[in-house]
Amino acid sequence: xxxxxxxxxxxxxxxxxxxxxxxxxxxxxxxxxxxxxxxxxxxxxxxxxxxxxxxxxxxxxxxxxxxxxxxxxxxxxxxxxxxxxxxxxxxxxxxxxxxxxxxxxxxxxxxxxxxxxxxxxxxxxxxxxxxxxxxxxxxxxxxxxxxxxxxxxxxxxxxxxxxxxxxxxxxxxxxxxxxxxxxxxxxxxxxxxxxxxxxxxxxxxxxxxxxxxxxxxxxxxxxxxxxxxxxxxxxxxxxxxxxxxxxxxxxxxxxxxxxxxxxxxxxxxxxxxxxxxxxxxxxxxxxxxxxxxxxxxxxxxxxxxxxxx
Length: 309
Prior knowledge:
By secondary structure, the chain is an alpha+beta fold. It is built from twelve helices and eleven strands. The strands form five sheets. The protein has a three-stranded antiparallel beta sheet, covered by helices on one side. Strands 4-9 form a two-stranded antiparallel ribbon. It has a two-stranded antiparallel sheet with strand order 5-8. Helix 3 packs antiparallel against helix 5 (173-188). The longest helix is centred in the N-terminal third of the chain and has 20 residues, at 11-30.
C-alpha cells in the first residue's frame, strides 16, 4: 500500500512540490534499497494541475504517538533506537549535500505504530509502548542542496538553531541542533524551547546552555537583541521570571544517574553546542557511546528493537 500527497493547483505550491520531487528522486537514486530511513517516493504525476506524489504508507508520527500517550516520554531504549535512525537518515542527507531544515517530531513517522498497553501502578495510569521503533524521515519540501539559495529563516520555531535566529547563515549543523531538541522532547515529553519570540528563545538558550559566544554576538546583524555584547534581557520582567522559573540548565533535566542517562545528556550537550563549527557532526554522533548497544551488531539491534526495559 502507498499514500498520496496531493498539492494544490497553485503556482507557488507546484514549484515547491517539484523541488521536493527533485530531492526524493535524489534519495531514491542514492538509496534504492531504502537503507537510510528516508521515506521512499514510489511515483509522481500531474492530475489537472495538482501535483500528486505517491509514497510508502507510514503510520503515526513520533509526535502524534507522544500526544496520544498523554505526552508520556519514550523509554530510553526506544529513544536510543529512534535517535540512531534519525542520525543515520540525516547523515545520509548531509553526505549527499542536503540539509533537511525542518526536522521535528511531526516529520519522523513510525513504519508501524501498533502498541501494547501496560498499567503503571505507581502512577495509576495506562501507558502505551510502541511495538516497533522503525521510523522514516519525511517532508523534504524545505530540504536544500548545498549549492542552492539558502533562505534566511528556516525550521519550525522550537527546533531552530541559534545561527538561524541570529541570521549568521546556516548549513548541516542546523539539523543537528534540531535533532538535539527532538531527542530532549522524546526524553521529557515536552518541548525544550516553548516560545514564539526570538529574544525569549535566546534567553531560554542561555538558561539551558550558558551565555551565547561573543563571536556570534559580534557577527550578527541582529544587534537589537544585545547590549554591550550581552543579551538584552531583564530577568525581573514577567517574561524573565517565566524563563527563570520554567527553564533549567540542561543537565538538571536528567531523570536518572544511570550511565545511559549520562551518555544521553553528553550527546545532547554536543548537539546543542552554540557554535555550528563546534557542533557534533552526525557521522561522529553515530559513534557516540550512547549508541554502543546498537553498534555491537545487527543481533543486538534486533533483540532490543521491540523491548523497552
